[in-house]
Design a protein that fits this description.
By secondary structure, the chain is α/β, with parallel strands linked by helices. The chain is built from eight helices and eight strands; from the N terminus they run E-E-H-H-E-H-E-H-E-H-E-H-H-E-H-E. Helix content is about 35%, strand content about 15%. Helix 6 crosses helix 7. The termini are far apart.
Length: about 220
Amino acid sequence: MMPTSPPVACPRGGVHIKGVPCERCGKGKRKADVRKSAAKRGYDWSWRNEGETGQADYFLKENPLCRECRWWNRVVAATLVDHRKPHKGDMEWFWNTDNWQPLCKRCHDKKTYREQRTMSKYVVCGKPGVGKTTWVKQRARPGDLVFDADYLVSQLFSTPLHEGVDFGMVLVERLRKAVIDWLLMYPDRKAFIIQSDEARAAETAQWLSAELIRL
């Protein structure tokens, strides 16, 4: 057996092992794995600058409030322009304003954290009776969070399933927002959210960076 090179201490506190990229200084990483600078990724003076004449600067002047905070009925100034869906180097998608949204730093950091982690969250939608609950039951495990709006209303107000009363739906909508807010704070939690309204389900999936399942 050929001898292997001994580990070498990294000046930044890591360890250099042959064939293993260093997490501290990046030594050993393939060129494709090394992230480009912000300017090379498009975030240069034309994006934002001290004179506030960049495209993102103008966008924030026209959209001064954080979009996510407004959704939660909070009034917070937006300080960053976020790409709703990561552009991944596609400059056409980078400059597409339909993909932009104003966020405060707190909401932007939470969204970036969600995108950088592998998550197991599913939003299941479809017309009543198509098997949404069955789909979830076949995949959920003990400890997973399952939120079913129709089921909650039927149990709280003794109404037939899929025939929620107005007050009940308002209450469950508040609970849905609370569940989403909780999942944003605990992104590693596996969750299934069942909704009949496809537009609202798509919105929930966007906020949670979850997989949208249409049945």
